[in-house]
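ugh finaly. both done.
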Amino acid sequence: MNTVRIAIIDDDADERKTLQASFERLAQESGSAIVIIEFAGTDDFLDGYDRSFDLICMDIDMPGTDGMSAAQRLRQMDADVPLVFVTNMAQMAIHGYAVHALDFILKPINYYSFSIKMRGILALIGNRRRKSLVFPTTDGFLRISSDNLYYVEVRGHHLSFHTTQGVIRQRDSLRNWEAKLEGLPFERCNNSYLVNLKQVTAVAKDSVQVGCDWLPISRTKKKPFMNALTEYMGGTSV
């Protein structure tokens, strides 16, 4: 399970405590792993910003550099990090599109609405994750993104990695690669195939299309596979 690093920026210590408690409750309920880093002001946050955060939760009405101005500076340093405004200034939060904010949460925090929004956001963060995979070749190595891996196939003691750049073969175990890809959206559709859910294009009865290939879904793996696929696509488990 990958740990989600969350920055909370708010000048009110009680508000930071309330938001942290909400995240801790959500983590306990969902089985997620989170680390919260608190900042009492935007300048401290921005001056030490190191692109290590998976999510930023920021108030708008703060002394010094306000949240909206801080978000504009943040986007100059990091155009992609998910940003959520947690504020009582709904009239300002609706302008968050200008800094590509994912959403806003109104104070005082209602845990029910908070949990619904944050479950979706944490799922989005997990879906965006990728790893760099390195494969040895006869004359060097090949590096590809996990996004470009369609699926892994096992035959005996050998694996075939079906990628956008062709098929790579090496001696290894599928269990070993499940561990290497932990935290990414990969799921077994049967005992022989580990599928990248990002690359699934269709499901028909007991088969799943991954890239140009149709792979069988076994009876024992169907429910966990379909649950993982549904969760990845943003729905609820079936």
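ok and the 2nd:
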Amino acid sequence: MRFRSKIVDVSCLNHFTRVINTITKLTKTCTLRLTSSNLYFILTDKVANGGVSMWCELSQGNFFDEYQMEGVCVEQNEIFLELIPENLSRALKTAQNSKSVKIKLTNKHCPCLTVALELPSLSSSSRIVTHDIPVSVIPRRLWNDFKEPSVPEFDVSIYLPALKTMKNVVERMKNLSNFIVIEANRNGEMNLKIETDLVSVSTHFKDLGNPPWVSDDASQNSTQEKDTMAEARIDIRKLLQFLAGQQVNPTKAICNIVHKRMVHFILLHEDVSLQYFIPALA
């Protein structure tokens, strides 16, 4: 089992750092799945028990100048590691002026992801700064626990408003309640609502648009059905954590709502996709 990679391009390094920073804001620990073509950062808290789930997929060819890996066996050329993403984020913070960053799997008293930074110096030779990040190797028998989360058939899919705007709205609402209702329809309308015994507050967004994968059958439904709202009541802190931690700068941000069951967010960049699942509360 071997893994080594290298990033030289500054823009690729900065982009990779932003992705890791985003994941750090979303979870304390996660699973890193390495394949020959992709990297996956996975969080699989049981949605049924009120936990969130995350699935972040990166194409390695868009980030790394060099990338080599050998999995545990020929049949399944993959490696699964458990790590604390904040440790990787801290290591990358010192990499902003580096000539290159090497990341490899090592064994130093315990399995580690070793991040070696080549930093410029006044002399002809470069300085190498090394960070050893402890990881746990996940045995093959447990790999099935880290499959991509299945998405139930959603009732509404809608583009999100500017994430910064949405974050500012939710930040104000969090002082009023621990819960928020997200509702949307197939006419490109979305509402964020707080309802308590003392106050009722709502923010309305219009003309957001619906993704093209909304079925033809749905588009042929009556106007009344297109106006029908699907909704989910969720933990406002989990929503704010998602919005506040976002540094991926997506080209598209989408919200899928399974009525009274789940909210599924998708952030799409040309070389990154991040899915985030928040279960609905009764």
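summary for the 2nd one i guess: Confidence is low (pLDDT under 50) at residues 216-224.
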